[in-house]
């Protein structure tokens, strides 16, 4: 039987469209491409989520990829949390699953600064039974250790849980532990896939 549902946050419960966010700055096409590559497509961004380095050190590493746009990168970085927005389905979905008797957790690559600067995007948290942000444990998905930490901390039995994420690599890592998974592409298809899994136990 499935007793537990684990949610990713970005692009599952919270809107995170960095290309749309960058477009709002009205940079030149050349600058926008360079800044996007230097920031959101840079492996350093995952280290921002890990939370092992201060923000200023993260910024210094981002600058190295596009030193010409140092001022622009800082501006985009400092305003970034404001672009995250709670998706309309997030809280009703969680509350419905809770009312049906399921335990609800979250597991997300999420930076401390992002959380502190925009708590409104995470207003569903009080309805969850618990969870892990990457910065809290200095681990990121799809590293196996972050899944083990979640299971251990909340006494989750992987074979009795479902994990919902928008990134295939994170789902593949989860499946190695025996978790059933749902690839989130949109709410309608993901909720239907989840309900089918729950109906089959």
Task: Please characterize this protein's 3D structure.
The chain has 201 residues and is an alpha/beta fold. It folds into two domains: 128 residues, Rossmann fold; 66 residues. The chain is built from eleven helices and seven strands. Helix 3 packs antiparallel against helix 4. The mean pLDDT is 98.
Give a quick precis of the structure.
This protein is of the alpha/beta class and 201 residues long. The protein has helices at residues 18-23, 29-38, 44-50, 55-65, 70-79, 90-99, 112-117, 134-137, 144-154, 168-175, 187-199, and strands spanning 4-7, 14-15, 85-86, 103-108, 130-133, 161-165, 180-183. It has 2 domains: 4-15 and 84-199, 3-Layer(aba) Sandwich (Rossmann fold), CATH 3.40.50; 18-83.
- The overall pLDDT average reads 98
- Using DSSP, what is the number of strands? 7
**Beta-strand fraction estimate:** 5-15%
**Unreliable residue runs:** none
CATH class of the largest domain: Alpha Beta
CATH topology of the largest domain: Rossmann fold
- Backbone structural class: alpha/beta
| CATH homologous superfamily placement of the largest domain | HAD superfamily/HAD-like
The tally of domains stands at 2
Largest sheet: 5 strands, parallel
Order of helical and strand elements: EEHHHHHEHEHEHHEHEH
SSE order and pairing:
Layout: E1 4-7, E2 14-15, H1 18-23, H2 29-38, H3 44-50, H4 55-65, H5 70-79, E3 85-86, H6 90-99, E4 103-108, H7 112-117, E5 130-133, H8 134-137, H9 144-154, E6 161-165, H10 168-175, E7 180-183, H11 187-199
Parallel strand pairs: 1-4, 1-6, 4-5, 6-7
Antiparallel strand pairs: 2-3
């Amino acid at each position: 039987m499935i007793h537990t549902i684990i949610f990713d946050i970005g692009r599952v419960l919270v809107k995170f469209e960095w290309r749309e966010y960058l477009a709002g700055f009205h940079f030149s096409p050349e600058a926008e491409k360079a800044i996007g590559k230097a920031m959101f497509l840079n492996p350093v961004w995952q280290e921002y989520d890990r939370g092992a380095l201060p923000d200023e050190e993260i910024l210094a590493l981002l600058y190295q990829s596009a030193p010409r746009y140092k001022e622009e990168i800082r501006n985009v970085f400092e305003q970034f949390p404001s672009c995250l927005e709670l998706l309309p389905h997030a809280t009703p979905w969680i509350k419905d699953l809770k009312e049906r008797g399921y335990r609800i957790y979250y597991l997300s690559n999420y930076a401390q600064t992002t959380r502190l600067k925009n708590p409104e995007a995470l207003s569903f948290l009080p309805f969850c039974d618990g969870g892990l942000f990457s910065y809290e444990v200095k681990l990121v998905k799809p590293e196996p250790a972050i899944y083990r930490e979640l299971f251990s901390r909340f006494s989750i039995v992987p074979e009795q849980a479902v994990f919902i994420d928008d990134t295939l690599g994170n789902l593949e890592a989860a499946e190695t532990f025996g978790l059933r998974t749902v690839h989130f592409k949109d709410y309608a298809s993901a909720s239907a896939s989840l309900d089918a899994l729950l109906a089959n136990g």
